[in-house]
Every structure is written in structure tokens, then in C-alpha cells.
């Protein structure tokens, strides 16, 4: 996106909360690839979706430093929870420290490990899922969520919403030269799986790096 237009969008979106601004700064100071952080515009979008959908249960695949989890938790009603899973244990300290600083810590269950191992064992069916994990594993995440083989129990139901982030992958999804890259291939395969699945309907939102918003019929 044109940098001037991007700045305009930032300037005309509700102001970032102080805690999230602090988390943004700490992520840029201490973490490799800080651009993986959702940021204020996407964070506000996630919060609004949560407020509109009123989910009781949220699953997040890919906590990173906790920015998106905090945004979604801030929109949750009392009694609702988010289970967020991060495979990189080196990020646990930052995320946990900011969860504890927030007023939403009782709504966030933070798990460390592979989402493919942890999510099926939580014993929950989720109203909303935000997928932002390993791009190479996106097709496997989809199988897991929908209960396709080798998984036996779906983690979503009719009316559940799945939002998959980075679905345009910096434009590489439309450049055949990149389709031997496993990260790009994972996203291309995921998008194809969703598009050909008559159990769902979807729309790709061209926000930041793209969000595939999927509704289970």
C-alpha cells in the first residue's frame, strides 16, 4: 500500500492504547521480525469483530508477543475466553508479562507448544479462530479445525468464523516464481482448500497482508 495512504489510515483509526503501544515498542526492541506484530489497525479490526460476533470461545494460533490476543480479549464479554497458542517458548516471557499487566488476564489462556498438538486436546469447540501461525502448516490447521483426516473431531461448528492472517503473503501468492517456497506454498494450498470447500463461505480482506475470513455454514 502507498505509504501516504497507509499513514492516513493509521491517523484516522482510533488511537492505540498505552499498553499496546508499550508492547509494540518492546517487540521492536527485543524480538526478531517485529513486523509480525498485528499493529493498531488490524488490532482494532480484531477487537471490533469480537465485539460484533460476541464469541464465547476464541482460539488463536500464533500468539507472537501477545498484541492480537490482547486486542481480542479487550472485546470479549464477561465469561468468555481466548486460548492462544505459541510454538516459540522464547516469546513466552514478553507475552505473559503484558497479559498480566492488562485488565484482561483472566480471559486469556496462554499455551506454549504446537497448535496441532494442543488445540485438539483443549476439549472445546470455538466460535472464532484467528490463524497466524507457521504458514507452512496452514493446510494442516484447516484440516484440524474442520475435523478432516487424520483429525476426528472438528474444533468449529456452523456459524463459527475462521480468520487466517497473511493470506496474500506480500503478493507472493500470485507470483509463480515463489510457489516452490514452502511458506508461500502453504498459504496457496490453504486458500485453495477453503475456496473448494462447500462447507464454508469466505472473503479475502486486503488489509495489511490479507485476511481470509471464513464462515462455517
Question: What can you tell me about this protein's structure?
Answer:
The chain is α/β, with parallel strands linked by helices and 217 residues long. It contains eight helices and seven strands; from the N terminus they run H-H-H-E-H-E-H-E-H-E-H-E-H-E-E. The protein has a seven-stranded mixed beta sheet with strand order 3-2-1-4-5-7-6, sandwiched between helices.
Helix share, percent: 25-40%
**Outline type:** globular
Q: What is the structural class?
A: alpha/beta
- What is the class in the CATH system? Alpha Beta
CATH topological fold name: Rossmann fold
Q: Termini distance?
A: 33 Å
How would you spell out the order of helices and strands? HHHEHEHEHEHEHEE
Assembly state of the chains shown? single chain
As a percent range, the share of strand residues is: 15-25%
The overall average pLDDT, rounded, is 95
Strand order in the largest sheet: 3-2-1-4-5-7-6
Question: What is the annotated CATH architecture?
Answer: 3-Layer(aba) Sandwich
- Please give the radius of gyration in angstroms: 17 Å
CATH superfamily: Vaccinia Virus protein VP39
Uncertain segments are: none
Biggest β-sheet description: 7 strands, mixed
Q: Please report the total strand number as a whole number.
A: 7
Count the domains: 1
Count the helices. How many? Answer: 8
Amino acid at each position: 500500500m502507498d505509504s501516504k495512504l497507509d499513514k492516513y489510515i493509521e491517523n484516522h483509526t482510533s488511537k492505540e492504547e498505552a499498553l499496546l503501544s508499550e508492547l509494540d515498542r518492546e517487540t521492536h526492541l527485543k524480538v526478531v521480525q517485529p513486523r509480525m506484530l498485528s499493529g493498531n489497525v488490524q488490532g482494532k479490526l480484531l477487537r471490533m469483530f469480537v465485539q460484533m460476533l460476541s464469541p464465547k470461545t476464541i482460539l488463536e494460533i500464533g500468539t507472537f508477543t501477545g498484541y492480537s490476543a490482547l486486542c481480542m480479549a479487550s472485546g470479549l464479554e464477561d465469561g468468555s475466553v481466548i486460548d492462544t497458542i505459541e510454538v516459540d517458548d522464547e516469546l513466552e516471557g514478553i507475552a505473559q508479562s503484558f497479559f498480566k499487566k492488562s485488565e484482561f488476564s483472566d480471559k486469556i489462556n496462554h499455551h506454549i507448544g504446537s497448535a496441532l498438538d494442543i488445540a485438539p486436546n483443549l476439549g472445546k469447540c470455538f466460535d472464532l479462530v484467528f490463524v497466524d501461525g507457521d504458514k507452512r502448516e496452514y493446510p494442516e490447521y484447516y484440516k484440524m479445525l474442520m475435523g478432516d483426516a487424520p483429525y476426528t473431531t472438528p474444533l468449529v461448528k456452523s456459524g463459527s468464523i475462521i480468520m487466517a492472517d497473511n493470506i496474500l503473503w506480500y503478493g507472493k501468492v500470485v507470483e509463480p516464481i515463489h510457489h516452490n517456497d514452502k511458506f508461500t506454498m502453504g498459504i496457496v494450498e490453504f486458500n485453495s482448500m477453503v475456496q473448494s470447500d462447500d462447507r464454508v463461505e469466505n472473503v479475502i480482506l486486503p488489509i495489511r497482508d490479507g485476511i481470509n475470513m471464513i464462515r462455517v455454514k
